[in-house]
Each structure stands twice: as C-alpha cells, then as structure tokens.
Amino acid sequence: METMKVNGLLYKQLVTNGAACLRANYKIVDALNVFPVPDGDTGTNMRMTIEAGVEEISSCEETSVGAMAKRLSRGMLMGARGNSGVILSQLFRGIYKGLDGLDEVNALELGKAFKMGVTQAYKAVMKPAEGTILTVARESAEYAFKKSNKKTTIEEYFELLIKEARASLERTPDLLPVLKDAGVVDSGGAGYIYVLEGMQKALLGEMIVEENVASTIGNVKANHNFNAHSVLEYGYCTEFILQLQHSKVKIATFDETVIKDFLETIGDSIVCFKDEDIVKVHVHTKEPGVVLNHCQQWGEYITIKIENMSVQHNESEEVQELCDCPECVAIRELQERKKYAVVAVASGDGLVETFKAMGVDYIVSGGQSMNPSAEDFVKGFDLINAENIIVFPNNSNIMLTAKQAAKYYDKANILVANSKSLAQGYSALTMLDVSSGDSEQIMAEIDDVIKNVTTGLITYSIRDAELDGIEIHKDDYIGICNSKMVSSEKTKADALKVMLEKTDLSEKEIVTIIYGADVTEEEVEEIREYIESTYDNLEVDVIEGKQDVYSYILSIE
C-alpha cells in the first residue's frame, strides 16, 4: 500500500505508535548512559514527554494535520521532562509550525516540517552540541528531504529518514569523545529513532500493543495511614471530563448549571465549566459514585480521577503540596502578593524539609531518575501568589524544563537560577537575599555563589567502564567531582576520601555533607571526623537528605 498524503487522523496514528515503540524500548535508551551510575533517565523522560502529547490528542478527531499537530505540540510542551524531553517537544513543536494551516501533506511537505522541527530544537538549546539527538534529527531530516520529491510516498520518506538517522546515531561517538570513552551511542538520538520506527510501523500496518500495563493499584503507598479503622473525614477529590452525547442531550443549548446545582447538594469546592461539547468538573464529595451516575445521563466520561483526601491529609507531612482547590487558590489570591517567592527541585524527605525550613515556597518533587515536567513547574507557579518567582532546578538535566516552563508562563516574572546540582542549590539558598528588590542584582548574587561551589557525588557503578582515566568495576563506589569521574573504590568512605584528595580544597572553607537513605549515622560521623582531622581549613556541616541514588552529595565552598 502506498500512502501519498498524511492528514490529522493518520498523523495521530503515527505519533501514537511512535510513543508505543519508545515505551517498549525506553529502558534500553536509559541504559545508554555515559556515567555508569543508576540514574539513566533519557528514555524515561522522552517516553513521558511524548505520552503527554499522545494523551492530549487521544480524544481528538481533527482531520486537519495542522490542527492535530498543534494539539500534540501543546501536550508535549507541558509534559516535557529533562533535556532530552524538552528537545523532543521542541522538535515536534517545529514540525507543528511546518504543518500549521494544512489539512494534509505529501512527503515533501512533511519533510519540510521535519526540517523546521530541527530548526526549532536547535534554537531551544543555548549551546547545541553535535553528536546528540540534535545531530541525528538534523542529518536525517536533511537527507530525507533532499532525496524526496512530489512522487515520493510517505513510506519511502520514512525509509529514508530512518536509514540516515541510524547512520547518524552510529557516528555520534566520533563527534562526542565522552560517548566513545563510555562505549555508547547518544541516548537521545536512540530514543528519537524508536519514535520514528514506531511511526513507520504504523504506516505498514504494524500497531504496537502494550502487553504490560501498570496497575494503578500498585501506585498506592503501602504505608499510608488510612486503614480499616479510619473514618472518611475529608471525602474524595473527584475530577472528570464529560463528553456530552447527542443521543442524550441537545449539546448546543446544554447549560452546565444543572450539573453545578446538583453538585452543590452533595459536595463543595466545585469547578464546573462547558467547553463546546465537553464539561470539566472538580468537586469534593463523600459520594463520588452518586456524582458519576447522575452526570452520565448527559454523556460519557473521557477521564476520571478520584482521590481519597483523608489519605492525602494523613500523608501531607511527607509531601510538600499546596492545595489547588478553588477555595484555597482564592484565599491565596486575596492575600497580599509577595514580591519574591522561591520554587526548588528536591528529592529525599530530609532535603525537602531542609529546603522548606530555608524558606522555599514550593517544592517540585524530582531529581536524578525522576525529572519533573514543565507542567509540574507551572502548577507550582500557579499556586504561588508572587510577582517574581525564583526557580532552583538543582539538576543540569532539569534546567531546560524549568526554562521552558518559564518561557510560556505569563502570570509572574520567572527567574531561573543556574543551579545544576543540589549542592549548588543548597549553597545559593543559604545566601539568598531578596531585600534589595532588584531582580538583576539578586540573580547575579545567586550566580556568584553557585560559581564558588564544588559539587561532589558518591554513588555506585552499574557496569564496568573507564572514564577520565579511572578504571571502574561494576558495584564499585565512585566519586564524581564537578561532573568528572575521580575515584572508584570498594566502599563509600574510600571513594569519598579519594575524591577529596583529588579536589583542590586550598581556598575552601565549608563542606556540607548531605547523606542519603543508604548511609547510617555511624558512617557519616566517621566521614565528619575524617574531614575535620585531615583538613584543618574545612568546617563540616551535616544534613540528613534521605535521597536515593547518591550516598553523599557534598557542597564545598
């Protein structure tokens, strides 16, 4: 079968299958990590980014390829996670710009759109590096476009695109020495190819069916405090989107007030609005089943979310979460608008509590191996009543996501600090002073603090490798100083000691040790005593971070 045109419905099918293909292979992409540490998350970030776009178009039946691409782009934009996810979202944003206003496209027009995607993605990265997903996307798009003409089928176009993408991926180690040293190809480029392969499979009639769908029951915390003896004090936060049905109601004249009036008799914190042929509802009620049964007389449900607020309340001490109910939002809006507020990314109960105590207004949960989305940041921005919001991403792989969220947020002035590690973020927060009211000066002072911070990390190796002249064996504890591998030892303590020996500490004064969930108090006390006895110039501070992945995070300044 030859396909000469792509319309909105076919584009949806292609992208949906592309997402399914990446979902089936994302762990392979995660494993293509330069550092042999248990935090590979490129595949995860790309998967979650494109899945956010697919979810956005799941109920869309637009036949216009431009309209469908616009919806997809919006979903990916808000769901983008990590540098690779942001770049992928920008690729598809550029593709949307190339398809905008078009009902259907041929291979040549689609090729032009892919080239626009590359241009958009390069613009999104401050210092684009070759040997990455950018290179794979650029070289494949240029090659396929050059080889296409008006008679080229869509199947032939994807054959050209994927052929060159694979060749480009194999060349990435020649462009980035760090890839060659690690013996891997670029992970972002590999993830992108899985998306393209899934799109190609859809053209050939090979739809990817998921065999293992995670159960939502597995996401419930085993240690929650709501049990067989508990009383449902707070009810259920109930949200749904109702698709009005012509067979049940006259959609054009339907007034959602009838739903609001009913909800007022059974719950509170009500939000209910109609958008063309759908109605979005939020209500707090002890009888969600009654609500759903009642509203089904007018349509059918697209999405449903029901959460036990008593469970959420009992766990509120563990998770930093401003209530987003309309009543609470309204109360915050009535309060005096703060001049400055702070949003910070953190993981580990100890670090979260430390950041709260330091005056952080909102914690975005995340870090290594669990990068937050742009929408996670926007949610935090929305819940803060402030003119200026300073954001500490605290991870180099979250920086682009934070900046993307800031770029598209217009309700406050978003200032993204250049904190690329938790150590940098912690040090900058200890010195944060907004009393001047001068945003430019405040950010310059933050930057000065960050530049003076040396970041040390201790974790374990998941494979044999040789990096930066260090021979590493699987299960060794490794020391990383300012993104450079400096030690590989059999114990956490030895890895940390060697790392300190190889670090210039002559002009440093303070070392803050943030220890993780796998470190005992005895172990950290041993490290404290070692540093104090070995380095007379260093003052030691200790924080129980309880973070995963990294046994020790050191902020040295």
Computed CA radius of gyration, to the nearest angstrom: 26 Å
Helix amount, in percent?
Answer: 40-55%
CATH class of the largest domain: Mainly Alpha
**Average pLDDT for all residues:** 87
Total helical segments: 20
Number of strands: 18
Structural notes for this entry:
By secondary structure, the protein is an alpha+beta fold. It has four domains: 6-203, Alpha Horseshoe (Serine Threonine Protein Phosphatase 5, Tetratricopeptide repeat), CATH 1.25.40; 230-310, Alpha-Beta Plaits (2-Layer Sandwich), CATH 3.30.70; 326-451, Rossmann fold; 454-556, Hypothetical Protein Tm841, Chain: A,domain 3, CATH 3.30.1180. It is built from 20 helices and 18 strands. A six-stranded mixed sheet has the order 15-14-11-18-16-17, sandwiched between helices. Strand 9, helix 16 (399-407) and strand 10 (413-416) form a beta-alpha-beta unit. Helix 1 runs antiparallel to helix 2 (42-57) and helix 15 packs across helix 16. It is globular and about 80 Å long. The relative contact order is 0.09. Mean pLDDT is 87; it is low at 211-224 and 312-320.
Any key phrases for this structure?
four-stranded antiparallel sheet; Rossmann fold; 4 domains; 557 residues; Serine Threonine Protein Phosphatase 5, Tetratricopeptide repeat; six-stranded mixed sheet; Alpha-Beta Plaits; 46% helix; alpha+beta; 20 helices; globular
Topology:
Layout: E1 6-7, H1 8-31, H2 42-57, H3 65-79, H4 82-99, E2 104-105, H5 107-124, H6 133-147, H7 154-175, H8 177-182, H9 187-203, E3 236-244, H10 257-263, E4 267-275, E5 278-285, H11 288-295, E6 299-308, H12 309-314, H13 326-334, E7 338-346, H14 349-357, E8 362-365, H15 374-382, E9 386-392, H16 399-407, E10 413-416, H17 422-430, H18 439-451, E11 454-460, E12 465-467, E13 470-472, E14 477-481, E15 484-489, H19 492-501, E16 510-515, H20 521-534, E17 539-544, E18 552-556
Parallel strand pairs: 7-8, 7-9, 9-10, 16-17
Antiparallel strand pairs: 1-2, 3-5, 3-6, 4-5, 11-14, 11-18, 12-13, 14-15, 16-18
Helix pairs in contact: 1-2, 1-3, 1-9, 2-3, 2-4, 2-9, 3-4, 4-5, 4-16, 5-6, 6-7, 6-9, 7-9, 15-16, 17-18
